[in-house]
Amino acid sequence: LSSSCIRPTNVENLLDILNTSDSQVKRPKCYDAVRELMDRIYRVEISGADVKVPDSMVELVRDKWFGGDGDLYKKFEHPRVMIVTDKFTSQTSTVNPLRALRPKPSKAGSAEKLAVREMIEASKPGCNFCTDKETLEDTFGRVVWEKSHIFTAENAFRFYDYTGMVIPADIHDFMEIDAQTFETMLTYSALTWFGNIHERHPEKTHPVLIWDILGKAGASQIHPHIQMFVGSGFYPGKLGELDDAGRRYKSAREGIILRILSICILLWG
Predict the structure, then answer these.
(1) Helix, strand and coil in the chain, % to nearest 5
(2) Is the CB of residue 168 less than 8 Å from the CB of residue 181?
(3) What is the per-residue pLDDT across 187-197, written as a single tens digit (0 to 9) for each?
(4) Using CA atoms, how far apart are residues 70 and 64, in angstroms rounded to an integer?
(5) Nearest-5° angle of CA 186, CA 203, CA 187?
(6) pLDDT per residue over 223-255, tens digit each?
(7) pTM here?
(8) What is the DSSP secondary-structure string of 172-213?
(9) How many distinct helices (H) and strands (E) make up the chain?
(10) Phi and psi angles of residue 218, each rounded to the nearest 5 degrees, phi first
(11) What are phi and psi of 96, to 5 degrees?
(12) CB 123 within 8 A of CB 132
């Protein structure tokens, strides 16, 4: 089956596959398998409404936005959008391949990055997280990775019964966190903290990590920190919804992860 399957090279190829009628299918065995697999998990709609480009914008759209590419211009006039909805979680994603070509301010990214770095630098003096001396300690103590000065602390203003944090003391700028530091924060600091909580409170069984960066994401401290809490017998909030959806799917059919992997293998190998 996999050796004869249709293999899209980009999103538009996938749009073509999903929008193909039964009579047009050259390899029905593969097509039926892909469609059947996707239909169990996702609701896929291919739709679009024609765009009328006024004469005053033709040159701008065709020549400046699309570099004179007539095919892209035709696709712009007759756009297709793929709307994919997960039947178990109701999450929806939409894809329009042309959005990757939309005009963007050329210098906005660098200016925003500079502004963020200036804000981070200005927050260093008096930062509470650059040392463990100004953070609360859990009743069972801290989990400390001395080599990189990574430590755990208790959130002073809890949003859950036990709310821990993992803090890399020597890294004040989240953009400077390297892979090794991040791995240590997750696989040593966080897992050890979760283990300490579960050991003392066996009913705490479902660990959750949150990483909010800067004020717009809800972080009260600019210094990078991962927050942790543990649900009692279930995952709280959105994670609980996803976990429940996975359980419902598994009880009805084969495992959802295996299904998604099967779709990827059939489409891309």
Answers:
(1) 50, 15, 35
(2) yes
(3) 999 999 999 99
(4) 12
(5) 10
(6) 999 999 999 999 988 888 888 888 887 776 655
(7) 0.67
(8) -SGGG--HHHHHHIIIIIIHHHHHHHHHH-TT--EEEEE---
(9) 9, 8
(10) 105, 5
(11) -125, 105
(12) no
Give the whole-angstrom CA distance, residue 60 versus residue 79. Answer: 18
- Torsions phi, psi for 128 (to 5 deg): -75, -20
- Residue-level length of the chain: 269
Of the candidate ranges 76-80, 163-167, 264-268, the one whose mean pLDDT is the lowest: 264-268
What DSSP letter does each residue of 108-157 carry, written as one string?
HHHHHHHHHHHHHHHT-TT-TTSSGGGSB--TT---EEGGGTEEEEE-SS
CA 170 to chain centre: 27
- Classify residue 37 by its DSSP letter: H
Would you say 260 and 38 are in contact if contact means Cβ atoms under 8 Å apart?
Answer: no
Over range 89-107, report the average pLDDT: 80
Mean pLDDT in residue range 210-233: 91
* Under 8 Å between Cβ of 238 and 89: no
How is residue 11 written in tokens? 């999103």
Encoded tokens for 31? 């097509």
Single-letter amino acid, residue 114: L
